[in-house]
Amino acid sequence: MKRDSLNYGLQREYKRPTPPRSSILPGTTEERTWSALAHLSIFLNLFTGFLGPVAAFIMWLAFRDRSRIVAAHAIRSMWYQIAWALIIIAGWTVTGILTVVLIGFLLWPVMFLLMFVPFIHASYAAYRAYRGDDYRYI
Fold first, then answer.
1. Is the Cβ–Cβ distance between 84 and 121 less than 8 Å?
2. What is the DSSP letter of 25?
3. Max alpha carbon distance in the chain (Å)?
4. Residue 45 contacts by C-beta under 8 Å, 6 or more apart in sequence?
5. 57 — pLDDT class (breaks 50, 70, 90)
6. Mean of pLDDT values over 34-47
7. Sign of CA dihedral 99, 101, 103, 106
8. Cα angle at 83 between 81 and 85, to 5 degrees?
9. Residue 74 and residue 57 in contact, taking contact as beta carbons nearer than 8 Å
10. Three-state SS across 68-101?
11. Is the pLDDT of residue 18 over 90?
């Protein structure tokens, strides 16, 4: 107490806080490439309709023992794709039911725009994964 009263008005020097590190540290170039490919597997859905989550799951099976980084990105990508598939199916179901009463026609443009959101978001996730960030969708 006495010592603090002698230093009244003087600025103290503090150490700069170190920024928090991510839980998954950036890996090798090969790990970052496979992590980005796991996120980009969503584009398989454009051509096949359902193989995006399957490809991400296969990547998780292949890398779960070899690389914790790739396995984490692959499993996140798989669940993200499954969640969006369910959201889009539910959205189109509601739109179809409401189309019977003509209100659903107003939802068609919304649903068409909503179908592009996961592709844009997954592309950003792939970019962040390739940079070595521990990107999480939520």
1. no
2. -
3. 80
4. 51, 52, 81, 85
5. very high
6. 94
7. positive
8. 70
9. yes
10. HHHHHHHHHHHHHHHHHHHHHHHHHHHHHHHHCC
11. no
CA distances from 134 to 6, 16, 31, 32, 127 (A): 47, 24, 12, 10, 11
Residues 130 and 36 sit within 8 Å (Cβ to Cβ): yes
Region of poorest pLDDT, from 6-20, 30-44, 79-93, 122-136: 6-20
Domain residue ranges in the chain: 26-131
| CA–CA gap between residue 60 and residue 37 (Å, rounded) | 12
Side-chain half-sphere exposure of 78, counting CA atoms within 13 A: 15
**Two structure tokens written together for 5:** 């009263």
pTM of the model: 0.76
Residue 6 CB contacts under 8 Å (≥ 6 apart), including other chains: none
Looking at residue 27, what is its pLDDT? 75
List alpha helices for 7-137, DSSP H: 29-40, 44-48, 51-63, 68-99, 108-114, 117-131
The tokens for 125 are 């996730």
